[in-house]
């Protein structure tokens, strides 16, 4: 899955907490949210949109709100892809240790092959379902040798 495909998929499934998400879809969306957050913070600072004493500016807050639900949804679908309940996301509330556990135990883990209790394997649709057509030699060739004489 390409970067833009992953972003489109996550926004198309804005609040879909069922089904599965591939590693590529999840990590590309994480990268996208990181880039959007950096841009929003930069604009807040450049335009002076951070209120006095506030940690984040107006644009950063709006970007965070806009990306909250799709981020939660793709995270739950990623957990489903490794055959875990979406409730495991609550482990992130245990500050750094919970996040590290989720990353190394589930988020970077390879998908469960085939269907699981949360749905079909999302990678099956991207794999070719039929073998490529065999290559045949042109007429007159047998075992790499030309038989007969070519017509002039």
TrEMBL record:
Alphabetical list of InterPro entries matching this protein: DUF805 (IPR008523)
Matches recorded under Pfam families: DUF805
Chain segments annotated as transmembrane: 26-43, 55-74, 86-108
Sequence segments annotated as region (Disordered): 129-152
GO cellular component entries: plasma membrane
Biased composition (Low complexity): 129-139
Keyword Transmembrane helix part of the UniProt annotation: yes
Keywords: Membrane, Transmembrane, Transmembrane helix
The protein's name: Inner membrane protein YhaH
Organism: bioreactor metagenome
């Amino acid at each position: 899955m390409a970067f833009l495909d992953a972003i489109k998929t996550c926004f198309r499934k804005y609040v879909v907490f069922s089904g599965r998400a591939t590693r590529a879809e999840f990590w590309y969306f994480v990268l996208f949210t990181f880039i959007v957050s950096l841009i929003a913070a930069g604009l807040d600072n450049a335009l002076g949109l951070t209120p006095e004493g506030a940690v984040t500016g107006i644009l950063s807050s709006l970007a965070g709100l806009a990306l909250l639900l799709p981020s939660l949804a793709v995270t739950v679908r990623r957990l489903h892809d490794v055959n875990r309940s979406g409730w495991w996301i609550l482990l992130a509330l245990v500050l750094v240790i919970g996040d590290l556990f989720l990353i190394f135990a589930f988020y970077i883990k390879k998908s469960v092959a085939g269907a699981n209790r949360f749905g079909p394997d999302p990678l099956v649709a991207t794999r070719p379902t039929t073998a490529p057509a065999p290559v045949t030699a042109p007429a007159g060739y047998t075992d790499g040798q030309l038989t007969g004489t070519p017509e002039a």
